[in-house]
Design a protein that fits this description.
Layout: H1 17-21, E1 27-32, E2 37-43, E3 52-59, H2 61-82
Antiparallel strand pairs: 1-2, 2-3
């Protein structure tokens, strides 16, 4: 059995123009099953009774946990450079439940 490690594969990541423009979302709704996490990114407009999902990302539990760790590391770096990120008052968003699943940013 050959125990030599293979060199890490380089992946070239490309972003087309439409994706590079990004989508604005100010609400994330997160649900899960035994096999996957579903992250819905929503844009809520003031005074509008409807909101559309701008993007839906479906991930495995292990990839979701890796995303959480990457976000934690990046938030720490951001706060070191720019100061603490202040969380909004949940009462400022009537009709929305405050919590980790759908706290507006």
């Amino acid at each position: 059995m050959d125990t030599k490690k293979q060199p890490a594969q380089q992946i070239q990541i490309q972003v087309n123009e439409k994706v590079a423009d990004g989508e604005y979302a100010n609400l994330a709704i997160i649900t899960h099953s035994g096999a996957e996490f579903v992250l819905d990114f929503v844009r809520v407009m003031p005074g509008s009774p409807k909101a559309n999902v701008q993007s839906r990302i479906i991930m495995t539990p292990s990839h979701t946990k890796a995303l959480l760790r990457a976000l934690e590391q990046n938030i720490t770096k951001y706060e070191t450079e720019h100061g603490e990120i202040k969380m909004p008052d949940p009462l400022a968003f009537p009709g929305m439940k405050a919590g980790p699943q759908n706290m507006p940013n």
